[in-house]
Amino acid sequence: MGGFGVIRALNLLAFLPIASRAPLYGRLLWALARDPRVPASRKALLGLATAYLVSPIDLVPERVPIIGRLDDVAVVVLAVDVFLSGLPSGLVREKLEELGIPPEELESDLQRVRRLVPRPLRKAVARIPDALEGVADFARERGLDRRLRELMEGPAEPTAQTTIKAAEVRPV
After folding, report:
1. Number of compact structural domains in the chain
2. Entry pTM
């Protein structure tokens, strides 16, 4: 494992206290993702991170010792950090209070994580919600969002009014 591998492994130790609070933070993310005040682009960021985790494609193959799992951790950590940093602090505080999570504990954990993730990488990931919002605007302008929704929902169920109209035009 050379010197670089040992340093990487030691850096992972910083995540141990955070890992013990993962279920609590999971509930926080769930509460925020369900809140209508959270922009869709922020929710989409969490969706993309989840898709990456369940995807068989990895930046670093899982078979590479220690580092193989790091990309999954990094994606989750970055997505959560960008998700939370793009929300109004009052909203996050409200959810923290509802769940009984001390705000200073969350901030301390986020600071610990931010020290481990290179700033250029954090800045690049922070641009993703704006890019998603741009894609959403493009789709809305061209009516693609409506078409996609119709495609996902399937054919509309006939209403009483459309059934009556259809009966009127049929020959008897």
Report:
1. 1
2. 0.62
